[in-house]
Design brief:
Number of strands: 21
Strand order of the largest sheet: 5-6-2-8-10-12-14-20-16-19-18
Largest sheet: 11 strands, mixed
Number of helices: 5
Distance between the termini: 78 Å
Strand content: 35-45%
Helix content: 10-25%
Oligomer: single chain
Order of helices and strands: HHHHEEEEEEHEEEEEEEEEEEEEEE
Length: about 325
């Protein structure tokens, strides 16, 4: 009849709320060492079961909320049982870390374009001053590693982790986790176009002595420290920070232009007091900019970060360091 409306009550499933609570309790027990963290690897291999359970939730639990809650409790009970007794049941636990060495000789290389996608482990990159090799890498990993080299005179080198297991190294026992480090060396004899994409690990990147043509750095959630090389020939570096911390150490005498984009993390710019430097801030943010007294403000509105800051005698200096801050973001940029 006109004016009569039938209202259907939508019933919410209790399945996912109970699953989330159970997952939180499970991780808490693992952090307290009540449940062995290495057994969590068993769950990673059984992840297709979640698809089956989610299908059951769609079929039954959406119409019968209590069925969803019961199904979730059964899943949690099964997870706890596997975590406690999975190894005894013959299920495979934590995988063994693998180690691989990679070496590419310089030979007749005139330019190297190197792309490094770092993993969740700690990475140390150092120069190879007296080596006949273009790159030397010692990589410890879980899952798979892709190392590709193409070209003859102009070489393209790409190194990156593959597979979901790479991102779960924190589940490894402490005695094995310490071995999952990356050590990479790059030649100082060949011009290098370098791209580095970091992740959640710590990155110590020493580029001193390298013949950089260009540097692009994309920061992750971890901690990174970069030593930039000195050069008479001007080169460009673009540094994009993320939620982690980034420390950049500049040489005293060099010609370079650095484009910097902040985010939510902290950026520390370590500049020698005798360097001729100009800092141009294009866009501020909710974060703060800290400039020392020996770098003077020459333009910009009072009370705002946007503007140009530079040392005395910058225009006449032979070696000029130009830093362009495209955006400060929500983090802090500290110059010292």
């Amino acid at each position: 009849m006109p004016g009569n409306h039938v209202h259907y009550q939508h019933k919410r499933s209790f399945f996912w709320p109970v699953i989330l609570i159970g997952a939180g309790v499970t991780l808490l027990l693992a952090n307290l060492n009540i449940i062995p963290t290495e057994n969590l690897w068993i769950l990673l291999r059984l992840w297709p079961v979640l698809i089956i359970v989610a299908g059951l939730d769609v079929l039954f639990a959406r119409r019968l909320p209590m069925v969803g809650a019961l199904l979730a409790l059964l899943v949690i009970a099964g997870v706890v049982y596997i975590l406690l007794f999975g190894v005894e049941l013959g299920l495979e636990g934590a995988p063994e870390p693998q180690t691989q060495s990679y070496v590419v000789p310089v030979s007749n290389t005139t330019l190297a374009k190197v792309e490094l996608n770092l993993s969740v482990q700690d990475t140390k990159l150092t120069p190879l001053p007296d080596s006949v090799n273009l790159i030397e890498a010692e990589i410890a990993y879980l899952g798979e590693i892709e190392f590709a080299v193409t070209g003859v005179e102009e070489k393209q080198i790409r190194l990156e982790p593959k597979g979901i297991m790479t991102w779960f190294s924190w589940l490894m026992p402490d005695d094995q986790d310490r071995t999952l480090d990356w050590a990479i060396g790059l030649s100082t004899a060949v011009p290098i176009d370098l791209v580095i994409d970091t992740s959640t690990g710590r990155s110590d990147i020493d580029l001193r002595g390298l013949r950089l043509e260009r540097l692009y750095f994309d920061g992750g959630t971890g901690t990174s420290k970069i030593f930039l090389p000195a050069s008479m020939e001007r080169y460009q570096a673009r540094l994009e920070a993320s939620t982690g911390s980034l420390d950049v150490v500049f040489p005293a005498e060099s010609n370079m232009t650095v484009q910097l984009r902040g985010s939510t993390g902290r950026i520390l710019l370590d500049i020698p007091v005798d360097a001729a430097v100009q800092i141009e801030v294009l866009r501020g943010g909710t974060g703060d900019l800290f400039i020392p007294d020996w770098i003077n403000r020459v333009s910009g509105r009072e009370g705002r970060d946007e503007g140009i800051y530079q040392t005395e005698g910058f225009e006449e200096a032979v070696h000029q360091l130009i830093i362009i801050v495209e955006r400060i973001g929500m983090g802090h940029i500290v110059v010292e």
